[in-house]
Amino acid sequence: MDIALLTYAEAPTLPPDDHHLLAPLRARGLTPHAVVWDAPEVDWSRFRLAVVRGTWDYFVKPQAFGQWLQKVEVQVELYNPPALLRWNAHKGYLQQLAEADVPVTPTRLCRKGASRPASLAALADERGWEQVVVKPAVSGGGRLTRLFSRAEHAHAGQEHLEAVLDEGDALVQPFLRSLHEEGERSYVFIDGAFSHAVVRPPTMGAQSLPDGYPLAPRADELQLALRALRAAPTRTLYARVDVATGAEGNPVLQELEVIEPRLFFASAPASAERLADAILARAKR
User: Fold this and answer.
1) Which has the higher per-residue pLDDT, 20 or 201?
2) Which domains does the chain show, CATH number per domain?
3) 5 has a pLDDT exceeding 60
4) N or C end of the chain: which has fewer CB within 10 A?
5) What is the pLDDT of residue 208?
6) How far is CA 209 from the centre of its chain?
């Protein structure tokens, strides 16, 4: 059976980490194909399944990605499921998870086209945030993500917020100092079950995700990750839950990644085998 592993034009043969998945799929009698998601004239009907992996440019052309989903979902079985991909593409999902009592990094969503432009200084003062992070609600890879001190809120910060809002919705969050002191922890799930965890060094301003180092799961963080996953709209084939230490010392959700997260197979070699098993099970349905 032919399986499409979706990537983007800058990594037409898949990002390096996803190469770990190829041999396990072949060992199970599946034939994986790296396919650029928005390549023209792909015959999607030839594939039993399509699994999103390295589509690392979807957020710079979100409208095209939405149109592509609508076209492809009627031609091939897609994972993660299209409804979940749509939900996760806009980081407003963080507010939905917070409303579901998942501890989330405090987040203010600012809407593009609002009749009254958001004031970054007023927003930060109201919440007592000294340093804030401003980023697009549809983003990845640190694109347009910037940190501003209190002295910068009214001018440089406001200019950046308005520039982001010219493009789309924006998120404003307090800067968590723990990210620079401890890094961010990522909990990887395969077919809804915990697989492995890594810790990653600070990524502010980085153009690519740094390598992760194996981490023994922390009980409170793992419980948070499970709560976030259970609050997602549908079951996941794969997911990565990123957590950090909040201002009060408790773990908080940074992101729930279910579109194209790097899964750090190299940090846990058996994880690629587990994902291959889950893909095979779906292909046999």
Assistant:
1) 20
2) 2-80+275-283 (3.40.50), 93-104+178-266 (3.30.470.20), 108-174 (3.30.1490)
3) yes
4) C
5) 52
6) 11
